[in-house]
Every structure is written in C-alpha cells, then in structure tokens.
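Handover notes (outgoing to incoming on-call)

Open items:
1. AAA family ATPase: sequence verified, structure written out, both below. Nothing else pending on this one.
2. Nothing else urgent.
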Amino acid sequence: MLVNFRFGNFLSFNELSHFSMAIGNTRRHPTHVMKFPDISLLKFAVLYGANASGKSNLVKAIKFSKNLILKGVPDTITFDKYSKIDPSNKEKNTQFEYEIVIGKYVYSYGFSVNLFEKKISGEWLYSLKDNKEIEIFVREVNNDKNNFLINYEALQLNENDEMRLKVYTEDSKFIFNSLFITELNKNKQPLTNSEDISVFNLIYEWFENKLEVISPDESPSENGITYIKKDNGLALSNFLNAFGTGVKEVCTKEINEKDLYKEMPSMIVKKIIEKIKEDSETTHALLRTSDNIHEIEKVNNEIQIKTVTFKHSTENVFYTIGEESDGTVRLVEIYDILASNNEKVYVVDEIDRSLHPNLTYNYINEYLKKKLPGQLIVTTHEDRLLDFDMLRRDEIWFVEKQDAGDSKLYSLEKFKERFDKDILKAYLDGRYGSIPEFKFFNL
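AAA family ATPase structure tokens:
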C-alpha cells in the first residue's frame, strides 16, 4: 500500500511536493481506513484542479518513476521532463521517493536522477519502524563512481548472501543509467531465500505488480479478459448493464491466426506466438487494435486466439470493442478496480473521461462501499464528490497553478473545515483555489 509519494523538479512541479495516503485528524467514515500494525491508511483519494493545473503531471510522475524502476533509463528517448519553470533545473536532480507498506513493514525507497544527462545521481532504501529510520542501503555518486553503503548488520545476512550482495555492488559501480534495485532484479530470480536480503526483490515486485497507473488514452488492460474467463463474462456483463451501457453479455469467440493478419503485420503476430510457445513463463498475450481486443493463449501447449465481443440484445448480434462507445470502453478499463481482491494501488487519471457525471459518482460510491483491500487514487472534475457525507477531509486534494507556472499540491485537511461545511459551494466560490479563472476576450 502507498503511504507517501514525494517528487520534485518534474514537469510543472518545480519544488519538492508531497502526496499522502496517511490518515489525517478527521474521524469520519472509518470504513475508508485500512489499519496496519504501525500505520493507518486511506483507501481512496481524489485530486481536483483547473485544466493545466498539474493534476495529470502528478500521475505522470508516478508512472515515469515506476517505469524507471522497472526498466532503467532508456538511451533511445529524450529525458526533458525536468521542470522548465527555472532554466537552472536542467542541471539539477529530479527526485522521487515512495513510502510503502509491504507485509508487516513500512519502507522508504527513493532515488534522484539528472534527467538531462540521463544519469542516476542517488538511491536509498530505509525501513521505518516506531518513527525511526533504519538504513538498508544508500547509493551515492562521487567522481563518476557509485559508492554503495550497505547496512549488513541490519540485514543480518549469512556469509553467502553477504558475498553475493558485495558482488552486485562491485558490478554496479560504473552503471549510471539503471537503479541498483533494477540491476538486482534483472534476471527475475530472487537473490536468496533469506527474508532480509529479499527486501530488494519485494520492493521491485511492489512496483511491478502492486502499482497500476491508468492514463486517459490507455487501452483496456488484460484484466477484462481475466474476468471474462472466470465466469464467462457474467460479472462484467452485469457491471456494464448496471451502468446503463446497453451491454447484456460479454464473451469471447475463437478466431484463427490469419484473421489477425487483417489487423496487424503477420510478422508481429508470428513473433508473439513464437514467444508464447517457447517461453515457459509466458502463457498469454493481450493485443489491442483500433477495433478489437484479442488474446493469444497457450492451452495444453496449443495456441488459442480469441476476440472479446459485446452483445446488446437477445438477438445473436455481437459487437467489437471498436464499435462500443467511449464510455463503455472506459468502464471496461476501470472494471478491474471494483472486481479485484488484490492489494493493489490504482492511480487513474481523468477517471471521468467519457463518463456521464452520474456514472462517475456512482462508480466512486460503489468503490467506497465495497470492502476492497487496495487503494484508489483518481483525478477528476466531478465536483459532486465534494461532500462530507461521502468523503473524508483527508481524502480530498487540490493542485493549483501558481503565477510563475509551477504547480502546488495541497490537501483539504489544511483548511480544517467542519463536517457540516458545504465544501462543494466553498470550492466553486474559490475558497480552496485550484479553479479556473476565466478572462473575457473579444473574438
């Protein structure tokens, strides 16, 4: 679970900014709180702000830092995402830091990177216990050389594991385009069975498997197909029907390999099929074209190719995802959040994209009513959520663009509003900032 996220010198965020899922002082809506041994966290948070205020840039910061952790610094792209508010930021480091809960422990993992030079400039990992920080490792860059400070005493490693870790640090001394966490997880094999040293794997796997970022222009994830398989699409069908899409049934139909050639180059299709056949760990692949969602799956060493279809009436007529409305597509994209029992953190930018305001409101309301083990963080313009009968004070965040063009992030918690305050009216009246200022002009 996510506790805190700090970042700075990234896009419109010039200064170090702090977003938190830790509870504030309010006691309302206790069912919105998840309790852990050392901390209590919120299960939901919403961010408001005018257009171009920087809401999406916070989501981009999470997505960008996640990709950097999983893949390293690619040589093929230009890293010009430092904040251009101050020209000198080109020479400064960009920082990302996460505090996360994994099992019984809270960890603080972060790094700094010079985006213009594409070089990692620092990295650290701490365990947080009883308001104390226990250093696990710190990476410092001095004179074009990585220095690793490993707290072997805290890790309590056996001789074998300590030697292995020392080899990794030695091998990484002159690697500047990849994080130490990334290097340790490149072969996808655990460093060891030792619980202490496997923390390096646990941190990496949290970003890989527990943090999901959904952007407005992203295709549906494979979760739609996953749930179709579970109950022949019954739950997804009921969900889409309840939200008034007109969809009565969701199912899959089997197609052959040559059918895919009509939508994408045969060379790509054959390459994917070959990979699934040969790779013991890869059992399926999801392909999204402009008109269809296809799944290529290995079943009993045989390749099956299926297409997701949608039925709107009792007649035997099926439609592809490309023939569905943008609203239906969006609901398919975010269905997994309500259906999953995984302890995942979902970050959804513009959750209300293509949705009627009533659908957005009811979707969030349904999420808050369900006892799900994960967290949901969204950006939206659906202001009817601004109601203390629905949300806690500490669940509401704002992003406001300053006069210089940089973004400022802050919580409604700082205003200490009473529970009976009409916060929707106060927001629209400009009390909390982060609303557009319209200036009249002549055409």
